[in-house]
Amino acid sequence: MEGFSQYPLDYWTEQIRAGYPLSFKEGVAMEKDLNLYQLMKLANNLTSVQVGNVVSYAVSYNINYSNYCTASCPICAFYVPMKMKGKTDRGYELSLDQIRSELGKAKAAGATEIHIVGGFNSDLPVEYYEEVFRTVKREIPDITLKALTIPEIDFIARTTGNSLTEILSRFRAAGMDAHTGGGAEIFDAEVRKQITTPQKISGEKWLEDAKIIHSMGIPGNSTMTYGHVEKIEHIIDHIIRIRDNQREVPGFLSFIPLKFSPDNTPLQKSGRVKMPASGETDLKVIALARILAGQDIPNISVYWVSLGKGIAQVALTGGGSDLVGTAFSEKIFGATDRKEGTSVEELNELVRQIGRIPAQRDTFYRIKNYF
Asked: Domain 53-370, what architecture?
């Protein structure tokens, strides 16, 4: 089915709305055949019928428990190599007292969600994570705990001699409510070789693990990191694989495209990536996410931390329907010198300025308050 521009956008809106899933070949053809305005218009049409006029966000507080990592991925500026432990003052592991201190700040900020991720730290036992999770729930009993990327969970299971289901059962008992969906990067194997290392699971394993996690009743987000060495075909392939996984075993709460920030990363230092993706690419990715996956994952998130607030606003008029969260104390993108913060008031104003209704939600996309 090619020649997309030969049909009115309303035609494609109705086709997709009726449940017609575009194939990879059709996604590539649509990207080539429609200009950016047309893609955004189609995506905006779909947003209005799939989620309406509300733009949501969570009041989230990030805790990055350690930056020591055995993976040392070229895409990352946050990690300190595990072999450097004890040889540098750049690495850290948070103690329980430090975790409590962070939780005090989260409580003061009115957070409804704690977002916990870190490096692949091979020195930390299962009991460390369990005690961190229990501490979160003791200190703020009503908080939702969204913890760990899928590769982190897989790494902890492998290095501690547990199966994935065993480790998840223990984490859930300790207080884990949802996973973060991170670490998906780009699923294409050849691209993945250039941006990760063998210590991180493959794209296929990420998707398999997601099915297991979701089958156990633990939902979470899905992500994609773009703007490095991939092509548009890899982006389309990634989005469709996420969508199809959701159709097989539902559990993804949202889809979050993450714009790669090259500053201070090995990819930048090697000269393989010199600049971030263009604003046009950012808008195209959000639009394609809505067009290809919005019927199955209606919450298409626009992460203002990686995009910047100006592009984020525009993306909300072309497929996006969520701003992820306040991301208080975020350190991973911060390691690339993206240190811009925000507030509930500012997010509300960003949404109002484009004629949408701002709303605070919980982790599971249930609206708590409209503004």
From this structure: Alpha-Beta Barrel (3.20)
* Residue of 56, 48, 4, 41 whose CA lies nearest to 25: 4
Averaged over successive runs of 10 residues, the pLDDT of the chain (371 residues) comes to 70 85 93 94 95 96 94 87 84 96 95 96 96 98 97 96 97 98 97 94 98 98 97 98 98 97 89 92 98 97 93 97 83 54 90 97 96 94
Q: Which residue do the tokens 């249930």 mark?
A: 366
Whether residue 33 contacts residue 4, with contact meaning beta carbons closer than 8 Å, is answered with yes
Which pLDDT value is given to residue 330?
55
The 10 Å CB-count burial string (b at 16+, else e) for 182-198 is bbbbbbbeebbebbbbe
Residue 370: burial class (beta carbons within 10 Å; 0-12, 13-18, 19+): exposed
User: What is the per-residue pLDDT for 1?
Assistant: 46
Burial of 275 (0-12, 13-18, 19+ CB in 10 A): exposed
Rounded to whole angstroms, the Cα distance separating 117 from 180 reads 8
